[in-house]
Design brief:
Layout lengths: L11 H17 L5 E6 L4 E6 L6 H16 L19 H4 L10 E6 L2 E9 L3 H15 L1
Antiparallel strand pairs: 1-2, 1-4, 3-4
């Protein structure tokens, strides 16, 4: 008989670590961002928008987190898949909830299991990806 080991869910404390770490990375690069953290069910755990971040960054950070969570992949890895000649070109419009295929969303795993996602918006896509990646690295 096999047993399954429970994996601790993403907590509000974890979410605060992620938001703070992403914000710190963005601040050190001189970039104003919004950061969204979702739990494994897609529910909002934390959100922070820098006062100087463009308003749309709040929406983009949330959509990036949601996309990374739903597809269990960094959004940076998905960009080419939804281009007109890509295998999933219709995916962005196929669902009721909008996905966003721009770098900056990263799934969060614990012990190999998906427990949530972080999305960063406000900088260039590569910057947002770097800020999200730095945040996840701090959670270990």
């Amino acid at each position: 008989m096999s047993t399954t080991t429970a994996v601790a869910p993403l907590t509000i404390q974890d979410a605060e670590i992620l938001v703070t770490a992403a914000g710190r990375a963005a601040e050190s690069a001189g970039v104003n961002v919004s950061v969204t953290v979702l739990d494994a069910g897609g529910h909002l755990l934390a959100f922070r928008r820098d006062d100087r971040a463009v308003l749309i960054s709040g929406e983009t950070s949330t959509r990036k987190a949601y996309t990374a969570l739903q597809l269990n992949a960094p959004t940076a890895d998905l960009v080419d898949l939804v281009k007109p000649d890509g295998p999933f070109h219709s995916l962005p419009t196929a669902l009721d909830r909008p996905l966003l295929f721009i770098a900056g969303g990263i799934p969060v795993h614990r012990d190999g299991r998906l427990i949530g996602a972080i999305g960063v918006g406000g900088g260039a896509p590569e910057q947002d990806h770097g800020f999200a990646t730095a945040a996840v690295a701090e959670l270990v």
